[in-house]
Design goal:
This protein has helices at 2-17, 101-121, 133-150, and strands spanning 56-57, 62-66, 70-72, 75-84, 87-95. With 152 residues, the chain is of the alpha+beta class.
């Protein structure tokens, strides 16, 4: 009997000392008031669904093409590619995993690297970023769908 009480007391103490991740600061405002935070990559309409678009014209002869939203283990990844002539001139992330603080840390680190890799390679054949394997794969697959859609 005494053993059961001691084990229960220890278990309760351990349970009460458990500290879950703080996710209170991760709540996002509604889409109508979504803002871009300085110092963070512009993730566009992260967390919202958008249909893939066909190529569209932008100023100075550039056009933008949205890639498919690619589901990964941690959430969807979708990019928007800007093409001038036959050259990829920019890649923006429309959606990326953002379910918790770690997802945001990975995105802050990996997405700028993936963008630079894509611009340097001028293709979706880019190296994965260590620690962001799923995000890297989703990025490359979404970029490839945008390239296919643009007929580069």
């Amino acid at each position: 009997m005494l053993f059961a009480v001691v084990v229960t007391a220890i278990g309760l103490a351990l349970l009460l000392s458990f500290k879950p991740h703080n996710v209170a600061g991760l709540a996002q405002p509604p889409a109508a008031v979504q803002t871009h935070e300085p110092g963070r990559p512009d993730l566009g309409n992260s967390g919202r669904t958008s249909a893939p678009s066909s190529p569209s014209a932008t100023p100075a002869g550039s056009r933008t093409v949205d890639g498919d939203a690619v589901d990964t283990r941690w959430g969807p990844v979708q990019v928007r590619m800007t093409v001038t002539g036959s050259k990829i001139t920019d890649v923006k992330v429309l959606r990326s995993p953002d379910g918790n603080r770690r997802d945001l840390e990975i995105s802050d680190t990996a997405l700028p690297i993936l963008r630079q890799e894509a611009l340097s390679a001028q293709s979706a054949k880019i190296d994965a970023v260590s620690g962001a394997t799923y995000t890297s794969d989703g990025y490359a697959r979404s970029l490839q769908s945008a390239i296919d859609r643009s007929a580069l």
